[in-house]
# Entry
Amino acid sequence: MEEATFLTRFAKKVTIVHRRDVFRASKVMYERAANHEKIEIKTFKNVISWLSDENGLTGAVLEDSRDGSKENINCTGAFIAIGHKPITKFLDGQLEMDSSGYILHKENTMTSKEGVFAAGDVVDTRYRQAITAAGMGCQAAIDAEKWLESQH
Ligand SMILES: Cc1cc2nc3c(=O)[nH]c(=O)nc-3n(C[C@H](O)[C@H](O)[C@H](O)COP(=O)(O)OP(=O)(O)OC[C@H]3O[C@@H](n4cnc5c(N)ncnc54)[C@H](O)[C@@H]3O)c2cc1C
# Structure
């Protein structure tokens, strides 16, 4: 909802395509988008293919998740926003994580495996910003250096 509302500053029209009719956005953000004159919300729809010509994107084919009917919409840009999921599957069974896949810190930035440090979006369930990730990266570098020194 936030990104769609932001895009109205640059686009003539913004179409939100969503596979259900329920949104996880806060009520106030949803209402701001739903009441915006440039925003159209299409619920129970999945994008099943993109349409293009030699100049780039021209539209999308949407399929209704209830009856399988299809419709084409015109668009020249597409932004995919399908939630936050840390890409930590490859660490399954190696580092302790919470039920959503966020890596857990044991002590400062050290993970459950001694000598392995984690920083940024893979551990941050709240802020997930460039500056907080970079700051935590610095913390992890300092912790790693101190840990290496302690090994001698
Ligand atoms: C649409 C969008 C807009 C945003 N806008 C802002 C903003 O305006 N301001 C702001 O502060 N933040 C913004 N953010 C958040 C910001 O981008 C992140 O918080 C920040 O990039 C997190 O840094 P990171 O180093 O933790 O992770 P990332 O930047 O995601 O870096 C992780 C890296 O690890 C790599 N990787 C993944 N798996 C593996 C693997 N198995 N092996 C090797 N490499 C791997 C990835 O390719 C990637 O390069 C935005 C994010 C998004 C998605």
About this structure: The chain has two domains: 2-74, 89-150. Residues 87, 90, 120-121, 128-131, 133 surround flavin-adenine dinucleotide (CB under 6 Å). The mean pLDDT is 95. The radius of gyration is 21 Å.
